[in-house]
């Protein structure tokens, strides 16, 4: 672990100044997160000619209503800076999990670094949900209640401001007994992540 930390430190020194044109915040040009066991530098695209293309460049979305900022009175909605803080302070320390709710084939093509995939449709599969809760550290007690004393914090995201996947999945988790204080909602999702030019990864 010390060797990995040393390598990361050298990488930070070597790349200093390369990401100071378009920063995340005035004091944060980039961060490192772990994705599938490898360190990934998360920063914003520095190419002045870069333009958004593909699915997340679309504006016209019939039947897709904009999601409210507050999806539930007890759930905290977060933006990109808070997502990065979550990735660094919770994800890197294995105290939290960033969850991508989009379809598996879409997740394989591209996702936010460190995110794991739980397809939205999984919410209707009781067997899979039971396994997921166990993996997250939640256990069903003999009286039927859910013991979440050791459960991970979770930040859910999906396609973007117009997608209902995250709000509906969050409702499922709340109904199962997962505590609201351990759930975060990244409303901007993949579309806002890409609009702001953040690093993405493939998951093949």
Describe the structure.
- With 204 residues, the protein is of the alpha/beta class.
- It has one domain (18-195): Rhodanese-like domain (Oxidized Rhodanese, domain 1).
- Helix content is 29%, strand content 17%.
- It is built from six helices and nine strands, in the order H-E-E-E-H-E-H-E-H-E-E-E-H-E-H.
- The protein has helices at 2-14, 80-91, 104-109, 126-135, 165-176, 189-195, and strands spanning 30-35, 38-43, 76-78, 96-100, 116-117, 139-140, 146-147, 153-157, 183-186.
- It has a five-stranded parallel beta sheet with strand order 3-9-8-4-5, sandwiched between helices.
- It is globular.
Short description, anyone?
This protein has 204 residues and is α/β, with parallel strands linked by helices. It has 6 helices and 9 strands; from the N terminus they run H-E-E-E-H-E-H-E-H-E-E-E-H-E-H.
| Shape summary | globular
Number of helices: 6
Gross CATH architecture: 3-Layer(aba) Sandwich
For the terminal residues, how far apart are their CA atoms?
26 Å
**CATH class assignment:** Alpha Beta
Characteristic key phrases:
two-stranded antiparallel ribbon, 9 strands, Oxidized Rhodanese, domain 1, 17% strand, alpha/beta, five-stranded parallel β-sheet, 204 residues
């Amino acid at each position: 672990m010390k060797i990995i930390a040393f390598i990361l430190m050298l990488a930070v020194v070597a790349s200093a100044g390369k990401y100071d044109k378009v920063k995340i915040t005035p004091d944060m040009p980039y961060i490192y997160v772990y994705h599938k066991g490898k360190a990934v530098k998360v920063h914003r695209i520095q190419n002045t000619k870069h333009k958004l293309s593909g699915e997340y460049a679309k504006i016209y979305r019939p039947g897709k209503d904009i999601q409210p900022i507050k999806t539930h009175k007890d759930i905290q909605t977060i933006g990109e800076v808070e997502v990065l803080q979550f990735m660094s302070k919770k994800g890197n320390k294995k105290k939290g999990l960033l969850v991508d709710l989009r379809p598996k084939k879409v997740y394989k093509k591209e996702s936010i670094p460190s995110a794991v995939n739980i397809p939205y449709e999984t919410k209707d599969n009781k067997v899979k949900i039971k396994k997921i809760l166990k993996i997250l550290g939640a256990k069903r007690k003999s009286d039927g209640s859910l013991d979440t004393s050791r459960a991970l914090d979770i930040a859910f995201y999906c396609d973007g401001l117009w997608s209902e996947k995250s709000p509906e999945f969050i409702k499922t988790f709340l109904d199962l007994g997962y505590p609201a204080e351990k759930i975060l909602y990244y409303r901007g999702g993949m579309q806002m992540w890409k609009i702001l030019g953040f690093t993405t990864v493939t998951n093949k």
